[in-house]
Amino acid sequence: MPSHADAGGDAPASGPSDGSLLDRVPDPTNLALVGLLGLPSLVSRRFEFLEPLLLCFLFALWPFVTMLAPSRGESPASWVKTGDRWSSARFLLSMVPLQVNPFVQTQGVRQLLGHLAVDARYRFSLPDPESFEGPVTYRLPVEGEWTVVGGGHEKAHSHSWSILGQRYAYDLVRTDGEGRTHAGDGTDRSDYYCWEEPVVAPAAGVVVAASDGHRDAPRTRGWLDLRQRDIRGNYVVVEHAPDEYSVLAHLREGSVAVEAGDGVEAGQRIGLCGHSGNSTEPHLHFHVQDVPSFYRGMGLPVTFADVAVADGPEDEPTRVERAAIRAGHRVVQRGFAPAPADGRGSEVRPRAIRVE
Q1: CATH fold of 118-354, please?
Q2: Phi-psi map region of 309: left, alpha, beta (phi>0 left; psi -120 to 50 alpha)
Q3: What is the pLDDT of residues 310-326, one digit of tens each?
Q4: Distance between CA 313 and CA 330 in Å, rounded?
Q5: What is the pLDDT of residues 159-188, one digit of tens each?
Q6: How many helices (H) and strands (E) does the chain have?
Q7: Which residue ranges make up each domain of the chain?
């Protein structure tokens, strides 16, 4: 479910590592692109001298290295019980045959190549929470209380730090008083508290892409769908401003209620939470990026207005006017109202409050 920074999908829901031994090591994932220079050696012996560069493709495995690296501390989302002790093993086992799924591999390569466009666009000075301030006021893309099981503004909490489009993405589930994401043994999709819960537009905008018809994965508890055709499953992309697009993924098959060209208001239902695509249990994937393309987008750090936030399973949610949420937070949308226009076509944004 929450991603361990694989090629755009979602992995077992242990949450991102907080304090990994590799947190301070520069991310070498983009060095995999150097492997492209070695491709001519595969078609002509004239370029045999470039063959060693093919080894650079191994840098694409870096996200898995960080996933398996030991942690110095406990994840803030460790209280969320998203599976049994074998869930991670099931995820790793299903990842092996998934490597021959042409749809998944093509999307992974396209995302990696998209990093070239992102770096060129920003000249290697990527948006971060300190430098980015967009014009849109966001609400949570869900109703009621949900739990952030993966994601945040910091590298240690990131959904997928290595995948630039999803650097500031979130995975959201619903939990009970004991931190469980499901009733019973969790073998059926309907056991999960977030299954078929409404997913809503996080701000007003225009739908630029919507896809339905992808099956919901038949298995849960760590297993990935080996027959997936799109790591997003069923999804919706909404343009909220010229450089801000929200992506809502893993929606329930047959639930997408909008299509490209539709205008939507903040809080309008666009689908239901599902289990489609690269998902190990029902959940909602949400992120904001700077262009409509899933492959060439740069993830943007956003905050949420009029939410109540609790850190962990026991605290009572406290309302704040604007919060930067992260893994381990329980969040509830309150009385959201878009900020008034400031006369320049953008919205006046209240001061952001970081909830630690």
Answers
A1: Glucose Permease (Domain IIA) (2.70.70)
A2: beta
A3: 999 988 999 999 999 99
A4: 7
A5: 888 899 999 999 999 999 999 999 999 999
A6: 3, 13
A7: 118-354
